[in-house]
Design brief:
6 strands; alpha/beta; globular; about 30% helix; 6-stranded parallel β-sheet; about 190 residues
Length: about 190
């Protein structure tokens, strides 16, 4: 079993060793910002260390929205994050599923995700992470995650470039726990 941790982006190997992690996840810059990713201090030490690296994309990325002022810069930033993460040997880029506007049909968000994978080059896999809140979120509820997966599985060649990251804290905050059924009711 390999144990992972979300660590500070500066000197990620030192941070991994400090907590006994075999796998790390970190940001390449401000998680709330739109700036290009920045390779952190000490990142070169990860190569050959045996520690697996995953990069978390900024929270601002929302490729699901119908708002062009957010979706278009989100696609650009997603591309930049993918390239930077690949350059440091990351196994995947983790990104939140985003959300649609209040009056939008969720299908709009699913289709916008599909368009991303038709237009963006993925040098490493993208793992879509569940979110804790938002009534219009693409990856909060299990039925929406299932539908997103269904839509994306129709994109040719995507099988090796798509994954899912289950954040158990987000699932709990969204009202899911080991005692809460995902659909229907318990017998």
């Amino acid at each position: 079993m390999r144990i992972g941790a979300h660590v500070d982006q500066n000197n990620p190997l030192d941070n991994a060793r400090a907590v006994g992690a075999d796998v790390v996840q970190f940001f390449l810059g401000d998680p709330q910002g739109w700036k290009k990713p920045v390779l952190p201090e000490g990142v070169e030490a990860l190569e050959g260390s045996g520690v697996d690296v995953y990069v978390h994309a900024p929270y601002t990325i929302n490729v699901a929205t119908s708002n062009n002022r957010i979706r278009i810069p989100s696609r650009k930033n997603l591309t930049q994050q993918l390239e930077a993460a690949a350059s440091i040997g990351a196994k995947a880029l983790i990104v939140h599923g985003g959300h649609v506007l209040k009056d939008d049909d969720p299908e709009t968000g699913f289709e916008n995700w599909r368009k991303v994978f038709e237009r963006v080059e993925c040098p490493i896999p993208v793992y879509i992470e569940n979110t804790a809140g938002g009534g219009n979120a693409m990856a909060r509820r299990f039925d929406r995650i299932s539908r997103l997966w269904e839509v994306l599985s129709g994109v040719p060649g995507l099988e090796s470039k798509l994954g899912f990251c289950l954040d158990t804290c987000h699932a709990h905050a969204a009202g899911r726990s080991s005692s809460t059924p995902s659909t229907g009711s318990r017998p």
